[in-house]
Write a structure and sequence with these properties.
Strands 21, 22, 25, 26, 27, 28, 29, 32, 33, 34 and 35 form an 11-stranded mixed β-sheet that branches. It contains 15 helices and 48 strands.
């Protein structure tokens, strides 16, 4: 399918394929980027074609939209027929209003299993399985091929974690497959192209099975559980091979498979792994298999990008600290593993221990942040030359490693192997302040290390859970940094699966104690945490414009509001103090206490919970209105008005003073528009006083006084109400509490606590993760406010863009970009001699409105002075419309 400009030159554009590309239902959200050359024109029509052959031969065409008169280039649903195990190719032709036409290169998506009837295999469990926290078993099968297949797919999943080998070669490069879901409700399977693994004649498939999250140790000692989802590991697999004649042959998991034992003597998410290389090649078969129960309706094709390795990191420092003991610093805190290359005698052993930080003297590991997690690797050499080892069924959070060798062996090399869910990077940022740049990088590294199929709180200790509160406050930041839509869509489905009948959302998703309530009573329903069911779909909608995320989650959102309403007849939340009680809330978690002689004011749980009750109710009303659910929208709009009135009655005095005179209280009130208009100016002054007195006794403090929930909204709220000077001052605070304190202390990821390590080098003794992204939510402000890259709240998804920068000489020059479904948005500014030069680029097919700070003067755009009317509009709430492409603005700021 060729494409031409009006003058005849070839012009192609890029399609946006489904993520992941293998589906079990009709794909949605097909889309495309308009050609870069189209910045001066708009699309007026498109045609999308789908075929089963890449050349789109007449007999292969299965569906076409025909020519559709529309500017739309996103969220096109496939409405044609589908067959299982089929690759489909699709392409698009577009027409522009200036007479141009353009066509795409083909892209593809592929179907896996479309119904339970498409599955022929059974979930099989190895009879050699010794149980949890013991030697990892395997299942295997030999089969013969008369000819080399032209195409071959492996569809595979497991109870537990699997690693598959065909003819001795590892299949795929994914880690910790099939990931973590609410296994009894939803079990993901993966699809691999295995044609190159197969050979004519005899072939073999072997699948190793580890405990993983399915039945390994999960949670801290008070709530520790083993066998959370079941006590047998197992594998479901189907190899489907098609030869040159089109004949299909399958190998499926059934009772004919054999079982054995692997060299993995022990593995677990928390304890680590023990591996005896002497046992390689001696894994079986030594037993049979059992067919295990499986509800095939729970099977879902992989919904989010898999966990993959990032480029390996070499040591920045490596030293001997004792006979056979080497201390290694990789220079970067990560989640992942290490890869060892060793040489030595058979039977020599290597032990690797880990830590995020060193002791105060810098001479050995300090692993207090691991709490009860063992986090240890033990490896026994097979001998006979150099050999390498990287753990199979575990991961750890670390920057430092200690390698201890017993026997005759030597460490040839060691590298750090970071893991992350393989999300597309969509954000970049830099400014003149290297500490701010490092803060941005730390937030990105914490995202990498904690987005491992679920948005974990931390990757190192006896926790590593999908805490809903952390994820909901960080989701906007994450969505600037990565394409998070498929990741959050998958996680939200687990959230809905784990939602309790009364509408409560579990504090962690997936909830490992869901089926063992007595072990973790009533671990549901906290404000801010449970509100993730409303906030995260709204974030995805804001960044993508995908209504499906709202439609899919609206019933669960309504149930959540119903749960809150059942405890709040007067519109005010009154959370109990005990975590096991219904309606408990964590509140503004980890608020800095300040001086013991004059502690910082606290933000009450009732205040926080009621503010969130209002915010989520308003979100549900908006989502319902967007979806045309009028009855739901009307009900929740009325309920939101009731909650707002109750909030103002309960928490704002007759003289306009907030009941809780804390930074967090003002953040929650202003962020959610809960301050009555007549008290707005007074509240701003009170907010300023609250900031300046925090931490101060004899002199102004200007310190952060917020926990993780309010901190995420602090700088955006200050910008919202015009306190830009205070926002930048708080950002640049280098003492604790403050973002730059940890950077100056050498942090390479975001800390859980402001005071994770004190000035004397002493670490906090409990709850002291050094890789915890929550406080990294400040990076949202970098993109949304400093660079001014904003989705239009009236038309989310960045098809309509708000360009609203905030200028601070302390950070100039500044540059940022964000990749959207329409293409890349770039923005940056410099300030010289009081003049601001602001340049931005918006992609073809979008609309944009420029909103400059009030008081800007001498405004030009592309070397043309704006008229008085244009200048006024550029500083108005409405904004000045600008066409796609690159624009350069100059202005002078008000003194």
């Amino acid at each position: 399918m060729s494409a031409t400009k009006p003058e005849g030159e070839e012009m192609l554009f890029t399609l946006i394929a489904p993520q992941p590309p293998v589906v079990d239902a009709a794909p949605k959200n097909l889309g495309w980027y308009l050609p870069a050359e189209w910045s001066a024109q708009r699309q007026i029509a498109y045609e999308l074609e789908v075929a089963t052959a890449p050349d789109f031969a007449a007999g292969s065409m299965v569906w076409t939209t025909g020519r559709v008169e529309s500017e739309n280039s996103q969220h096109i649903d496939y409405e044609g027929p589908l067959s299982a195990h089929q690759r489909y190719y699709w392409r698009v032709r577009i027409w522009g209003d200036a007479g141009a036409e353009a066509s795409s290169e083909p892209a593809w998506f592929e179907t896996a299993k479309l119904s339970t009837a498409d599955w022929r295999g059974e979930m099989i469990g190895p009879q050699t399985d010794p149980g949890a926290e013991k030697r990892a078993p395997s299942v295997a099968k030999r089969f013969t091929l008369a000819s080399k297949p032209t195409s071959a797919r492996l569809y595979i999943t497991s109870y537990g974690i699997f690693r598959c080998f065909i003819n001795g070669r590892r299949v795929g490069a994914d880690e910790l497959t099939p990931g973590w879901t609410s296994y009894r409700e939803r079990l993901g399977y993966l699809t691999y192209d295995i044609a190159e693994h197969l050979q004519v004649g005899e072939n073999s498939i072997e699948v190793w099975l580890g405990d993983g999250w399915y039945r390994g140790e999960i949670c801290w000692p008070a709530h520790r559980i083993v066998n959370a989802y079941g006590d047998r590991v197992g594998c479901l697999a189907e190899l489907r091979m098609v030869d040159a004649t089109g004949t299909a042959q399958s190998v499926i998991t059934d009772s004919s498979w054999t079982s054995g034992l692997t060299p993995v003597l022990m593995s677990g998410i928390y304890p680590g792994e023990t591996y005896d290389a002497r046992l390689e090649g001696e894994t079986g078969p030594i037993g049979g298999v059992d067919v295990l129960p499986l509800d095939k309706s729970t099977l879902v094709a992989q919904e989010a990008p898999p966990i993959r390795e990032l480029p390996h990191l070499h040591a920045v420092d490596q030293s001997a600290i004792g006979p056979g003991v080497t201390l290694v610093d990789f220079g970067q805190n990560v989640a992942g593993a290490v890869k060892l290359t060793l040489s030595g005698e058979r039977g020599a052993t290597v032990r690797v221990n880990f830590a995020e930080i060193l002791d105060a003297e810098g001479k050995d590991l300090n692993s207090t942040s691991f709490r009860g997690a063992k986090v240890q690797l033990d490896y026994t050499l097979k001998g006979g030359g150099e050999e390498s080892y990287q753990p199979v069924f575990t991961f750890m959070g670390f920057r430092h490693a200690r390698v201890t060798i017993t026997g005759h062996a030597q460490l040839v090399s060691i590298v750090s192997v970071p893991f992350t869910s393989d999300l597309v990077e969509t954000g970049s940022f830099s400014c003149s302040n290297p500490l701010i740049n490092r803060l941005h990088e730390n937030a990105s590294w914490s995202l990498r290390g904690n987005f491992l199929d679920v948005p974990m709180d931390c990757p190192q200790r006896d926790e590593r859970l999908g805490w809903t509160g952390d994820a909901q406050i960080f989701s906007p930041t994450a969505s600037y940094l990565r394409d998070t839509a498929p990741f959050f869509r998958k996680w939200l489905r687990d959230m809905v699966a784990d939602q309790r009948e009364d509408g409560a959302i579990s504090h962690v998703v997936p909830h490992p104690n869901r089926y063992n309530e007595a072990n973790m009573p009533n671990f549901y329903g906290s404000a801010c945490w449970g509100d993730a069911i409303c906030a995260v779909p709204w974030t995805v909608w804001t960044f993508t414009g995908d209504k499906d995320i709202l439609a899919e989650n609206l019933p669960a959102m309504v149930r959540w509001i119903g749960y809150l309403t059942s405890m709040s007849p007067d519109g005010v939340r009154h959370p109990p103090t005990m975590i096991a009680e219904r309606g408990f809330t964590f509140g503004d978690w980890v608020q800095p206490q300040g001086s013991t002689v004059k502690p910082n004011p606290n933000t009450g749980d009732d205040f926080v919970a009621t503010a969130y009750y209002y915010a989520s109710t308003r979100t549900v009303a908006r989502a319902a209105r967007i979806l045309g659910e009028t009855t739901i929208a009307d009900h929740h709009e009325a309920l939101a008005s009731k909650i707002k009135a109750a909030f103002q009655r309960e928490f704002i005095t007759a003289t306009g003073r907030l009941l809780y005179n804390s930074q967090g209280a003002y953040v929650f009130a202003f962020a959610n528009d809960l301050i009555p208009e007549q008290w707005h100016d007074k509240a701003i002054e009170d907010f300023k006083k609250a900031i300046y007195r925090t931490g101060g006794l004899n002199e102004p403090g200007l310190q952060l006084g917020t926990g993780i929930i309010a901190t995420a909204q602090l700088l955006p709220t200050l910008s919202k109400i015009g306190l830009h000077d205070i926002a930048i001052k708080l950002l640049l605070v280098e003492a604790s509490p403050g973002w730059l304190y940890q950077v100056k202390r050498g942090a390479t990821t975001i800390w859980e606590r402001w005071d994770g390590i004190d000035l004397e080098g002493t670490p906090a003794t409990s709850m002291n993760s050094y890789n915890h992204y929550a406080y990294g939510a400040v990076v949202y402000w970098f993109y949304h406010h400093l660079a001014g890259i904003q989705a239009d709240p009236q038309a989310p998804g960045f098809g309509s863009i708000i360009i609203a920068p905030e200028f601070h000489a302390e950070l100039a020059p500044l540059q940022a970009s964000h990749d959207t479904r329409y293409g890349r948005i770039e923005a940056g500014w410099q300030i010289e001699d009081g003049q601001v030069t602001y340049s931005f680029t918006t992609p073809p097919g979008t609309k944009a409105r420029l909103k400059l700070p009030a008081g800007a003067a001498d405004i030009t755009m592309d070397d043309r002075a704006l008229s008085r009317e244009e200048a006024a509009r550029s500083m108005s709430q409405e904004g000045l419309p600008v066409s796609p492409g690159r624009r350069t603005i100059t202005l002078r700021l008000a003194a």
